[in-house]
Amino acid sequence: MNQYLWIAGVLCFLLGLVHSILGEILIFRNKKKHNKIVPTIVTSKLKERQLRIIWATWYLTPFFGGSIGVMLIKIGTKQAEMSAYLMQSIITAITITMLSASFLVFIATKGKHLGWVILLVIGILNLLAL
Fold it and tell me: Whole-model pTM?
């Protein structure tokens, strides 16, 4: 078993989970009407449809994080059974994605959003696994 990939996969899951929970508590909780899932209360220059897509996009993180996490854990635990070329291609694509995302979040938030650190760690773990 490749522990680097396994840890990176678990971090992907945790990142998505924490992102969803904190976003709901810190950002979207006060923007919902009673018993509604999707926020519709607009308190700025945003339109309701814009708030809705921001909310939907926010929740793409756990979906993508979960699917990438599954891939990394599966590759990490079944490495001997997989084609080396396919495995390396998938890990390389995920590595580039995570390192690029880390850089984007770092630049966009001036390093104040800790998500860039987790994305960087996932990218580095993937590099170590190659």
Answer: 0.84
